Amino acid sequence: LSILNIPKYGCINGHASILPRHRGASPIQWALVCGDKTTGVTTQLMGEGIDTGDILLTEETAILEDENAGQLHDRLSVVTASLMIKTIEGVEKGTITPIKQDDSLANYAPIINKEMGYLKFDKTAEEICNLIRGFNPWPAAYFMLDGKRVKVFAAKVSDSTSKAPATVIKASNELVIACANGTSISLTEIQVEGSKRMSAKDYLVGHKIN
């Protein structure tokens, strides 16, 4: 803490969420995985804890439909740059009053690893779509098919179904798989191990899935 207090105005951090929600290493990805409708950027005074410092300024934005983590990252980077300039100017002029975070509202966005992207289809189609968006471009959601890893980069909720989760419902023109609670998902962009990234429709032209 003594090091953080060396600079005249303290140490200022830009964090890609509206704190105290999604403190931690991967706020952009987890905002999507959790199905949040809005997110944003917070500038804060750095403290001893992980993203626990007092809030200086925030700027909220809606998460766009079908937006993935890479796209949201690029959009928030522009917001962060602008908000950081406003923050530095305000801190220098003394026009910003730091606000303590409400720790009771805090949650954490943990570091992502490849295994977190494994799809078992035991969640609803909407939850799986959110996970796919959150882990695109890295590490990419995936499932196993005939011993090969299939990465999924885009998908959409499909029709309701009575099939058991993980059942392949359609594998001609589109790849539709049953999910939890009578939902199903259409995988629209995939990459099968050993093949290039392509639409599921193109993949199914030359490959049969039972």
Low-confidence stretches: none
Radius of gyration based on Cα positions: 21 Å
The portion of residues forming beta strands comes to 25-35%
Number of helices: 4
Average pLDDT confidence is 96
Number of strands: 11
Structural class: alpha+beta
**SSE order:** EEHEEHEHEEEEEEH
Shape label:
elongated
Task: Please describe the biggest sheet, giving its number of strands, its sense, and whether it closes into a barrel.
Answer: 6 strands, antiparallel
Residues in helices, as a percent range: 10-25%
The end-to-end distance, rounded to whole angstroms, is: 60 Å
Report on the structure:
- The chain is 23% helix and 29% strand.
- It is an alpha+beta fold and 210 residues long.
- The strands form 3 sheets. Strands 6, 7, 8, 9, 10 and 11 form a 6-stranded antiparallel sheet that branches. Strands 1-3-4 form a 3-stranded antiparallel sheet.
- Strand 8 and strand 9 (174-178) form a beta hairpin.
- Helix 1 (27-33) runs antiparallel to helix 3 (125-134).
- It is elongated, with a radius of gyration of 21 Å.
Helices, strands, pairings?
Blueprint: E1 12-15, E2 23-24, H1 27-33, E3 38-45, E4 55-62, H2 69-93, E5 108-109, H3 125-134, E6 141-145, E7 148-157, E8 168-172, E9 174-178, E10 184-192, E11 198-199, H4 200-206
Parallel strand pairs: 2-5
Antiparallel strand pairs: 1-3, 3-4, 6-7, 7-10, 8-9, 9-10, 10-11
Helix pairs in contact: 1-3
Task: Give a brief rundown of this model.
This protein is α+β, with helices and mostly antiparallel strands and 210 residues long. The protein has helices at 27-33, 69-93, 125-134, 200-206; strands at 12-15, 23-24, 38-45, 55-62, 108-109, 141-145, 148-157, 168-172, 174-178, 184-192, 198-199. Strand 10 and strand 11 form a beta hairpin.
